[in-house]
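Sat 14:20. Reprocessing the chain from the morning session after the first attempt stalled halfway. Input below, unchanged.
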Amino acid sequence: MRHFTHISDLGVEGVSRILDRAVELKSEPRAGLFAGRILAMLFFNPSLRTRVSFETAMLRGGGHAIVLSPGQDSWKLEDRPGVKMDGDRPEHLREAIPVLSRYADALAVRSFAGLVDRDADERDGLLWHVRDLSTVALISMESAREHPCQGLADMLTIREHVGAISKTKLALTWAPHIKPLPLAVPHSFLLSAAACGADLTIAHPPGFDLHPAVLREAEEYTVRSGGMIRFTDNQSTACADADVVYAKSWGPVQLEHAPQLLAQHSDWLVTRALLESGSRPAQLMHCLPVRRNVEVSDDALDSPLSLVIEEAHNRYFVQAAILDWLLNGDDDD
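Finished this time. Tokens:
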């Protein structure tokens, strides 16, 4: 059975096929693509673009999407194995996921990192638990480790606005924030860019490294794709020669020191001047939501260099392509 919970479910060749399919669906929409199909979505955390783009893809394709927010419009769900359920979670995933699998043709789950133990977040326990229990295709709508739909939408946007992703110079730069954020988005941008053969420079202050297991996976992709990954603690150097600057905040390795570390680096704000600091202007990307004038300045977000709206729009087409691949198969079957 196919699932799409991590970029590794596609690999280098699969990423390319999904992007090709998304381009086709964007240029030639197909009516009835999901006729009679049901997608059940579990949101353990809030959503705007993810929820609406998945619902829209299903509805425009002739299918239906059911949205559940455990603890709000459905029972709170327990996920821990072997626990005595005498608390405020009356239903366990071990019953909920098999039941939902009987009702729907595919499931999708969104959950965030706990931001207590980086290694536990990287292991992605909740998502893997759901995957083990599901008897239908499962999609990650973001998890503790990755946000793979976002990563593919990012690559589609670069492909449309810059050209071939292979050898394109990308800069993933850390940006300031009022609190530590999960690593899922930067992880997925890294993995997707590596799978596509991009020339990627990652810039962050000392102590804000991405998880080493994800870095190793990305390096494995570059061997097949011909891509390259570099690291620097100099934001200006990373952005000066980039075709695209991807701004995103994430938490430090030492989460207990997050307030002090975040406060030290407010000068990493991404501005239009930074985008225009090289021999040619770089285009701006960010996954949204974005805290204006904390992460990215108004003059950058409101400039012609910003691709953030196009990037968000492309979530719809990438996710339609993923749903098509999972529900309808492809020529390689």
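The first helix runs from residue 11 to 27.
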